[in-house]
Write a structure and sequence with these properties.
It is a single chain. By secondary structure, the protein is of the alpha+beta class. The chain folds into two domains: 139 residues, no CATH class; 140 residues, Beta Barrel (Cathepsin D, subunit A, domain 1). It has eleven helices and ten strands. A hairpin with a 5-residue loop joins strand 5 and strand 6. The protein is globular, with a radius of gyration of 21 Å.
Length: 291
Amino acid sequence: MPPRRPLAALCVLLCLLAGCAAQNADLPPAAQAALQTEFVNGDAMLSCNLGCVGDYGAHRQALQALYQSGNWNGLSAQILEIGENIDQAWFYLAAAAEGLGDDDAAQRYYFISLVTRFQCRKGINVCDGLDLPALTEQRLEALDAKMAATPEFAAPPGPAGATTEVHLIIGRDLPKVPVLLDGKIPLLFAVDSGSSGVTIPAGLALLMVDQGLLKKTDIIGVTNSVLANGATAPVIVFRIGSLQIGGLVVKNVVGGISPGPGELLLGQTFLNRFRSWSIDNSRQVLILQKN
């Protein structure tokens, strides 16, 4: 009797026989360039699952060689073309972003790698020698240390007076501000008055649990949130110990764990803790008036 094949192996075999195509292989050059722009901005999406297993498997050795040689442009282009939604691919994408100096995007992709449902260690390639997710957490710690040493975080905060001004980091979409989470994790939060609360990605929540920063007693409950596509999804609501911005430390802020990849959003549960707040576009600062 022939040996029984694991289900994952059969899926790969079926995909290879069926000629599974890469998610973005047939896009014109302009669309491929748009993918690279999304990648740099931290907005890249890998949404192909079973349909890209065969193509991803066929390129595993090439992807590994690109990663080991530090060919970050080639690695990101190949990952985006295939579009396979697996933690190893997200790790490669994050490593490419980090290697190219796009640390904010790298952080986001590492977070997704930690929590994506499809994991290489549960398949047949055993992550090609990569110790995931441990290596992902190590890279996030390295990014934290690097970010903490930047002028936005390294300079000691000034005295917390009635008015606090924080320099904004202007990007493609929402302006961002440096925030120290629970006095330990430096992050760049997008200032979003349209968000009802402070939102963090699930990968960050997982790290907070590992570091003892998020406990069962911090969970407030579950609510439904409307996503960008109009669908609703459950969101875990919890209490954040503290958020430090400039010379201010705001304690016990209500936050939510994004049901999707999500970005770090500084919404109304933080902004409403002040008598007033505003953005001075000419000076690119966030102005917070204490109650």
